[in-house]
Amino acid sequence: MAAQGNVLIVEDEPGPALALKMILKPYYDVYTAERGEAALAILKSTAIDVVTLDLRMPGLSGMPLLGKMKEHDADIEVIVITGYGSLETAVESINLKVFAYVSKPFDVLEILETTKRALHKRRDLQRLRHIKEEFFANLTHEFRTPLSAIMGYSSILLDEHGGTLTSDQRHALDRIQSNSHDLLACVEGIFFLAALEAGEIPITPWSFDARQILVPLKTRYADVFREKGVALQITELPTLPIRTDEEKVAKIVDTLVLNALKFTAEGSVTVDATVRPDATLEIRVRDTGIGMRPEEVHEVLEGFRQADPTARKRFRGIGLGLRLVTRLLEAVGGNLDVVSTLGAGTEVIVQIPPIAEESEHEGHEATDPIATMTAAPFNARASA
Q1: Could you tell me how many helices (H) and strands (E) the chain has, helices first?
Q2: What is the C-alpha R_g of the chain?
Q3: pTM reported for the whole predicted model
Q4: Which are the contacts of 129, defined by CB distance < 8 A and separation ≥ 6?
Q5: What percent of the chain is helix, strand and coil (3-state, nearest 5)?
Q6: Contact 353, 285 (CB under 8 A)
Q7: β-strand 206-209 against 100-103: which pairing, if any?
Q8: CATH number of 6-106
């Protein structure tokens, strides 16, 4: 009979471990671990579907081990099998979405049936995730294809017939180009955020000088700032060594700068940065825009909304910018502080701690959730 899935038995007592292996081996590929550390090593190298877990073992065990397993794979199904159960551990197991809680001594038929139902649930979740990924892939294609056609044909009209167009016709084509670019950026931002929140974008640490991200901003966004009549100021920066995900830091900075420009009608946007004594990279983006009240900052950080309802009429967008920044910072273990005064501008301060060398694993292109646990937890604050 072909194996239906992979089951990991985490049990330090030889008797129960052997019994579980004999029960499950005819139906599943079975792996065993006597300690929590060994169990985590197996999870990193093998796609495990179901875990049977004893809560009391030497070393890493119990709820801490269960928590790390769920951080590694939130959909992994865990069956707690223990002779030392309590109301407290039962409640924690529920909070960590344990599939079942079985007391020793266990019944053979109960173990077989529980494992079968756990694997069935795991497969259902995987099918749903595949359907969602396929849906987003198709949706991305359906959005991008017509937008690319619109942008392409309008560009051809401008290039080949620009000399014969009236000023109104040229203005209309320019508007088509500008609005299409804005819509494409919005669509790609939404899909990137969806993938980020689903944990589908890995963390790739790299040692680099953050100046190579900040200094080119002035050249890269010179046209859009000049068109709006707002100055982009980059302060004189020292060397800014940091080890983290360079691509995500660049996206954070780009998003903050463009968001600041969107809400600034006149004046300037200023970018400053430093590396603090604890090796944390701190980046500040200040603008002279419309600003916000403290309670409005909290609302913006919660999700897809702009603080002032009237701002939607004056400044286009769906409130995606800060939401994207908070999720990117969460991914790299950073913090966010927003200082804003209504009518007097906003300053956004991000702190990004370095990711330690040992959090990378040889042979893996990117770190997994357990590997990045050394990063500081994300924290967003609003200041008056």
Answers
A1: 13, 13
A2: 26
A3: 0.53
A4: 75
A5: 50, 20, 30
A6: no
A7: unpaired
A8: 3.40.50.2300
Burial class (CB in 10 A: 0-12, 13-18, 19+), 116: middle
* Per-domain boundaries in the chain: 6-106, 128-197, 206-383
CATH topology identical between 6-106 and 206-383? no
Domain 206-383 belongs in CATH node 3.30.565.10: yes
Non-local (6+) Cβ contacts of 92 within 8 A are: 63, 66
Q: Which two tokens stand for residue 134?
A: 């396929």
Here the tokens at position 114 are: 């529980």
Residue 88: half-sphere exposure toward Cβ, Cα within 13 Å: 4
What's the token pair of residue 206?
């790299």
Residues 168, 174, 176, 182, CA torsion sign: negative
> Rounded CA gap, 116 and 114, in Å?
5
Look up residue 95 and give its two tokens: 């909070």
Which of 290, 377, 371, 369 lies closest to 330, judged by CA?
377
> Taking the CB of residue 247, how many other CB atoms lie within 10 A of it?
14
> Could you read off the pLDDT tens digit of each residue along the chain, which spans 384 residues?
456 899 999 998 899 899 999 999 999 999 999 888 999 999 999 999 999 988 777 778 777 888 888 888 888 899 988 766 555 666 666 666 788 888 788 888 989 999 999 999 998 888 877 776 677 667 766 777 788 788 888 888 888 877 788 888 888 888 888 788 778 777 777 777 777 766 667 888 989 999 999 999 999 999 889 989 999 999 999 999 999 999 999 999 999 999 899 889 999 999 999 999 999 999 999 999 998 887 777 776 664 444 444 444 444 444 567 778 888 898 899 998 888 888 889 999 999 999 887 544 443 344 433 333 334 445 656 554
- Omega before 309 cis (within 30°)? no
Joined together, the tokens standing for residue 316 give 């286009």
